[in-house]
Design a protein that fits this description.
Layout: E1 14-16, H1 24-35, H2 58-74, H3 80-86, H4 93-105, E2 109-110, E3 119-120, H5 122-132, H6 140-151, H7 159-174, E4 177-183, E5 189-198, E6 201-208, E7 213-219, H8 226-240, H9 245-258, H10 265-277, E8 286-291, H11 303-317, H12 319-328, E9 335-339, E10 351-359, E11 365-374, H13 379-399
Parallel strand pairs: 1-9
Antiparallel strand pairs: 2-3, 4-8, 4-11, 5-6, 6-7, 9-10, 10-11
Helix pairs in contact: 3-4, 6-13, 7-13, 8-10, 9-10
Length: 401
């Protein structure tokens, strides 16, 4: 009998994210064929030899679910005696141990120590998240709490400050580190000016509506008069106000082509260079904000936990790697989940990432936010929180226009 798919709350779309080219079902089928222990009598086993994960029977799924849920709640391994008291159908500790042995040979659980209970593997966590987990919807009180906390952020702030405050609040709600990736090209423009520094060099000053000021050094063609700089500024300012660079880039290029008879060649070159200097969109032009590192220091159980967090801190300092990971979430509309070594950036620290994209007023994805924490994150609670936070941030950006 196939395992029932967990019902997702309305409005939460979860996209499966795993190692490229790796498929759980095919991997498990291969492991079962190669590793099935011959001394287990099939008639006594609760798992059929050669079965895929979707064919685990109800008792096997129940025992596996108890192991995972205990791990997510406590971080500790659980033994057969305790499991026999937890499961819905009475089963002796010996029978539970037989099932646990089968689950271990399937690669779903492992024993951290010889005499210890069992913990889920990363493969087991992925199977649990994809097939067994019930994603809890947020209550109305929780929605109002999230909305109130994010709405408390002052509107006059810059977009960067707004997102930073939003991540601080998301981190507090999820008790994990919160991250957001945005891009300079999302900023709505207000004014541009060319200021001569040297005979063949100018400073391009770009002012956005949220008060941010950015400067670029621009080489000038020989013989450019000051009037050409003023004319280039006027040409651009007449077309950029209140729009993002992504919205105006094509229009500017088209307007420049139509105005070639009205603008001299030097002015045209300055305008084209000014547009190119803010091409935007590449990873090194994007802004990564991380908040809530301290949450990762809570509830440490052993020295290995401390080492794991230290490695995660090192990972978070690798900002380009984190930005690349978050950029993957922009390729799909929905929550994405990366567990442990499914992403090589966090393979050593054994961390999980839950992300969701957010949008501007036109519905275009302009960034992605999420949380990073240990693999025993409360996925069922964090997933809808990240999804709802992304919607509220999208709404906040629309209201700023």
């Amino acid at each position: 009998m196939a395992a029932p798919r967990a019902a997702r709350p309305k409005g939460v779309k979860v996209l499966v994210s795993r190692v490229p080219g790796e498929h759980i079902k095919s991997r498990i089928e291969l492991m079962v064929q190669e590793q099935w222990v011959s001394h287990h009598d099939p008639k006594d086993s609760l798992i059929t030899p050669g079965a895929a994960l979707s064919q685990l029977n109800e008792r096997s799924r129940d025992i596996f679910r108890q192991i995972v849920e205990n791990y997510l709640a406590t971080g500790e391994p659980v033994g057969s005696r305790n499991i026999s008291r937890m499961i819905s159908v009475p089963l002796s500790p010996a029978s539970v141990r037989n099932v646990m042995a089968d689950l271990e040979h399937l690669g779903l659980i492992y024993a951290p120590h010889t005499s210890a209970g069992r913990l889920p593997t990363e493969l087991g966590l992925r199977f649990f998240v994809d097939a067994l987990m019930q994603v809890g919807d947020l209550t109305e009180d929780e929605r109002q709490s999230i909305q109130a906390q994010l709405a408390a952020i002052g509107k006059p702030q810059s977009i960067e400050a707004t997102l930073s405050d939003a991540m601080t609040r998301l981190s507090g709600l999820t008790r994990a580190a919160a991250v957001v990736l945005t891009g300079k090209s999302n900023t709505r423009l207000k004014h541009i000016e060319f200021v001569r520094l040297e005979p063949e060099q100018a400073l391009v000053v770009l002012v956005s509506e949220d008060g941010q000021i950015e400067n670029r050094i621009l080489p000038l063609p020989p013989g450019v008069p000051s009037s050409a700089l003023v004319e280039a500024s006027n040409f651009l300012n007449a077309r950029i106000r209140g729009r993002t660079l992504g919205e105006v880039r094509d229009d500017l290029e088209a307007a420049l082509a139509q105005s070639r008879n009205e603008l001299d060649q030097l002015t045209q070159k300055i305008i084209a260079a000014g547009i190119a200097s803010w091409s935007g969109g590449s990873n090194d032009e994007r802004r990564l904000i991380v908040r809530g590192h301290a949450n990762l220091l809570e509830d440490l159980h052993a020295m290995e936990d401390l080492e794991r967090v230290r490695l995660l801190f090192d990972d978070l300092e690798t900002k380009k790697g984190v930005a690349d990971l978050l950029g993957l979430a922009e390729r799909g509309d929905g929550v994405r989940i990366f567990i442990g070594s499914e992403n090589k950036l966090f393979s050593l620290s054994g961390s999980s990432t839950i992300t969701a994209p957010y949008r501007d007023g036109s519905g275009r994805i302009v960034g992605v936010l999420g949380v990073i924490g240990p693999t025993r994150l409360n996925y069922a609670r964090v997933i809808p929180m990240v999804d709802y936070a992304a919607r509220i941030v999208s709404q906040m950006l629309v209201e700023r226009i």
